[in-house]
Specification:
Layout: E1 6-11, E2 14-19, E3 21-24, E4 31-34, E5 40-44, E6 49-54, E7 59-64, E8 77-82, E9 89-94, E10 99-103, E11 112-116, E12 123-128, E13 135-140, E14 144-149, E15 155-160, E16 166-171, E17 178-183, E18 187-192, E19 201-204, E20 210-215, E21 222-227, E22 231-236, E23 243-249, E24 254-259, E25 266-271, E26 278-282, E27 291-293, E28 300-307, E29 310-318, E30 322-327, E31 342-345, E32 351-356, H1 357-360, E33 396-401, H2 411-419, H3 427-440, H4 444-457, E34 484-486, E35 500-501, H5 584-593, H6 599-602, E36 604-605, E37 615-617, H7 633-645, H8 649-659, H9 661-664, H10 669-685, H11 689-698, H12 702-705, E38 753-755, E39 762-764, H13 765-774
Antiparallel strand pairs: 1-2, 3-30, 4-5, 5-6, 6-7, 8-9, 9-10, 10-11, 12-13, 13-14, 14-15, 16-17, 17-18, 18-19, 20-21, 21-22, 22-23, 24-25, 25-26, 26-27, 28-29, 29-30, 31-32, 32-33, 34-37, 35-36, 38-39
Helix pairs in contact: 3-4, 7-8, 8-10, 10-11
């Protein structure tokens, strides 16, 4: 501590001097407050209530206000405040609901002055009026705020927020009659002390409890709030509606906020849990603190600037039972450790690159952008000569590299997301539909992927026989390309001696598997089919050509063809009777049963000029009953990984949803969650909210399924008095009327409620639908012609 710097500040006729120092307390502190001349500080907690004098080198204990043999709960303080007009007047908020005032000018040891016991639960905050000596305001866990005149025994006004507990109350520094109150449900209310019946203004400031607020010392309309959502927000209250002008994202719940004197955009914060540090932020630079104090070892519970016009001394109390005085020259500056380089892509492919200005200041090609962008192409922070810190070391210049409009277009992503079908149909239909969508956007590789997935995972047995190509007529439908081939693709070396030899044993996987259900397509005419390359020669006896690349052998009995040969009774094989569209089974069975054909010849199908053909169509999917769909799962997994690595997370997620359990077990949960979050983020960037919600609902990851269940709040107002409803029931607390009455049955709607946006009347969905079948007028009798979508 001896190495710490010493600071001296002149404030009018007074001089503040000191260094970073601390003292150990007897117990954890809950709150601290400083007197008007910045010479003393009061520390209050559950088991401590002391006043310390702030000397140049140390804190010196001046007074212990916990007196008596058996201290009561009145000494157990949740908050403490020192009056800025009267240096002898203090007020505390007790955990038992009592508001206590203390008069330091009393000659007795017990300085307790008045007790106000009107609150029913813990008092969270007390606040003196900045200019009115006898006015005290309190906010309690019971949801009420009370204004006390210290010259009277009871409160003079009670303000009901019609909400949950009050967490903070603060009088406006500039407006005499105005005070702000923050609530557990995320609302902030502005009140006029002359009108205790209702608030002047209310708005939702945070998603969750608002723990603290503070009026700006210079700008009368600025109100800072901090909440459990880890955000500090600055609101401009000069407009008709509260307008958020700044937002700072912290790393933990915000417990206290205090504007820094003499620095318009600086605000100090501390956290309620997890984070023990105190931060000073420049709200114009919300992503990194301007200064940070790291002395405390436990949660900081109270912060206060030592003097109203001094920006260099900050006092803090903590649960680690220490009281600190911080000076800014000893604060760490996170900006010194920040990386001034950054890189980011926009939605439309533009690239933004930030780098140290010293590195690229010599680039003569840098020139301002003349386009119609909202911001200039280069950014440089202007230094304020009154700033305590200089940002020269972290000064960056931003360059934007634009992509070509055509090449950088992301229309395909939006169109694909809108047109893809992910559920509600059979797998084959989903794959066909998505393949058609991809094909229409010239994404041929993705279209082919969907087609392959349909072939692998959907059984052709579900396809109607009308789609099978049993005829060569012009009106016949063709099977997919994978299930058919042309004879003209057969090597020419086979020539006219080609034949189809069916093996009895297991075939090699690289050969084409044809079972007994294979269909030979005959031409209706007794001529060679037009376009066929097969010569019109007779096919005789055995074949001398190499057939290994086309035909299958009997691997279990490789010497089957070397068996004893029996002389056929006829020199030429008998030709079967020509019929229209013969069945392959009957065709082969007739030849096998013929008494004039030998056994080996019964297994040979000979092609005559009359029977020549140009297309073989297989009525069953390839590899059926031999290679199950699980055989292809590793290949499909690698395909999805490929698309994800290429940046096409849309295809990866869409396939993942369509295939569901068929492929889910092949990809680890963490990878799936990463894909889902990336795709959902992209959809939300393009404002495709409905599609994003559909993806969340169809997700197979538990962490993703709950995304649309969190951070969703529906605020309901009473239909009679238009006031916000509480969460306690269906009856409005103010007008005592049921809020959501069905216009047809006149009962409370506790489920799905449908209403007309023209007249605001509605009710149960089924009742309204039945009513509109017979009448188009509103069932409430207002005469409006209701329309429902």
């Amino acid at each position: 501590m001896e190495k710490m710097a010493r600071v001296t500040t002149a404030l009018g006729g007074n001089t503040l001097s000191g260094r970073t120092m601390f003292c150990h307390l007897d117990a954890p502190a809950n709150a601290i407050s400083v007197c008007r001349d910045a010479a003393q500080v009061v520390v209050a907690g559950r088991n401590i209530f002391k006043i310390y004098s702030i000397e140049e080198e140390q804190f010196v204990e001046k007074l212990n206000l916990r007196v008596g043999r058996k201290p009561s709960l009145n000494f157990s303080c949740a908050d403490v405040v020192w009056h800025q007009m009267d240096e002898n007047l203090l007020a505390t908020a007790a955990t038992n609901g009592v508001v206590v005032t203390w008069n330091l000018g009393k000659p007795s040891r017990n300085k307790q002055d008045q007790l106000f016991t009107e609150h029913k639960r813990t008092v969270n905050k007390v606040c003196f009026h900045p200019t009115e000596v006898y006015m005290l305001l309190s906010g309690s866990q019971d949801g009420y705020m009370k204004c006390f005149d210290l010259r009277k025994k009871d409160s003079v006004s009670t303000f009901s927020g019609q909400s949950e507990s009050v967490r903070d109350v603060q009088f406006s520094i500039r407006d005499y009659f105005t005070f702000a109150a923050t609530f557990e449900n995320g609302n902030v209310q502005l009140w006029d002390i002359r009108r205790p019946d209702r608030y002047e203004r209310m708005f939702t400031a945070h998603n969750g409890p608002v723990f603290c607020c503070d009026w700006h010392l210079e700008d009368r309309g600025w109100l800072a709030t901090g909440g459990r959502d880890k955000m500090v927000k600055v609101w401009d209250m000069n407009t008709t509606r509260a307008k958020e002008i700044y937002c700072v994202q912290t790393i933990a719940s915000v417990a206290r906020v205090k504007w820094r004197p003499e620095c318009k955009h600086h605000i100090a914060t501390c956290s309620m849990m997890v984070d023990h540090n105190i931060y000073v932020w420049d709200v114009r630079r919300p992503f990194i603190p301007s200064a940070m104090f790291e002395e405390h070892k436990d949660v900081t519970t109270g912060i206060v600037w030592r003097h109203l016009h001094d920006p260099y001394f900050l006092l803090s109390g903590s649960k680690d039972s220490t009281l600190y005085q911080h000076i800014f020259k000893d604060a760490s500056q996170p900006i010194d450790r920040a990386n001034p380089e950054g890189l980011c892509y926009s939605l439309y492919g533009d690239l933004a690159f930030a780098a140290k200005e010293s590195l690229i200041s010599s680039d003569s090609n840098r020139k301002p952008y003349i386009g119609d962008r909202r911001h200039p192409i280069f950014f440089k922070r202007k230094l304020d000569p009154t700033e305590q810190f200089e940002y020269i070391s972290s000064s960056s210049a931003l360059s934007v590299f634009e992509t070509d409009v055509e090449s950088g277009s992301m229309d395909w992503f939006v169109h694909t997301a809108k047109q893809y079908a992910l559920a509600g149909r059979p797998l084959a239909e989903l794959c066909d539909h998505n393949a058609k969508v991809a094909k229409g956007l010239d994404r041929n590789q993705v279209a082919q992927t969907w087609t392959m997935l349909r072939i692998i995972y959907s059984s052709l047995g579900n396809v109607s026989s009308a789609n099978l190509n049993h005829s060569m007529g012009k009106g016949s439908a063709a099977l997919p390309l994978m299930n058919s081939f042309n004879l003209k693709d057969i090597p020419s070396g086979l020539g006219s001696e080609s034949r189809l030899d069916r093996s009895k044993g297991e075939s090699r996987t690289e050969n084409i598997l044809m079972d007994s259900s294979s269909t030979l397509i005959n031409n209706e005419d007794n001529e060679e089919t037009e376009g066929s390359d097969v010569p019109a020669d007779y096919l005789l006896g055995d074949v001398e050509a190499d057939e290994d690349d086309l035909y299958m052998m009997d691997h279990e009995n490789p010497h089957a063809e070397e068996q004893e040969y029996s002389l056929p009774q006829e020199a030429f094989p008998l030709r079967h009777e020509i019929v229209d569209n013969p069945s392959a089974l009957d065709h082969l069975q007739d030849k096998a049963d013929s008494p004039h054909v030998s056994g080996n010849e019964a297994e040979t199908v000979s092609l005559t000029p009359v029977e020549s053909f140009s297309l073989i169509s297989i009525s069953h999917s390839l590899y059926e009953n031999r290679l199950p769909s699980d055989f292809f799962s590793p290949i499909v997994r690698d395909t999805l990984l490929f698309y994800a690595e290429q940046g096409d997370v849309q295809t990866a997620v869409s396939v993942l949803i369509v295939l569901g359990e068929r492929i889910r077990k092949e990809i680890d949960e963490q990878t799936q969650e990463h894909w889902y979050t990336s795709y959902i983020d992209l959809l939300q960037r393009f404002q495709l909210w409905n599609i994003s919600n559909e993806v969340i609902k169809l997700s197979t990851c538990r962490a993703i399924n709950c995304l649309n269940q969190a951070s969703t709040t529906l605020h309901v107002n009473c239909s009679n008095c238009k006031r916000p409803m509480s969460n306690r029931g269906w009856i409005c607390d103010r007008c005592r009327q049921c809020a959501s009455m069905c216009a047809v049955c006149h009962h409370v709607v506790k489920g799905l409620f449908v209403w007309c946006q023209g007249c605001s009347h509605g009710g149960h969905l089924q009742h309204i639908m039945k009513w509109l079948e017979t009448s188009s007028h509103c069932p409430a009798g207002c005469g409006h012609l209701c329309e429902y979508t």
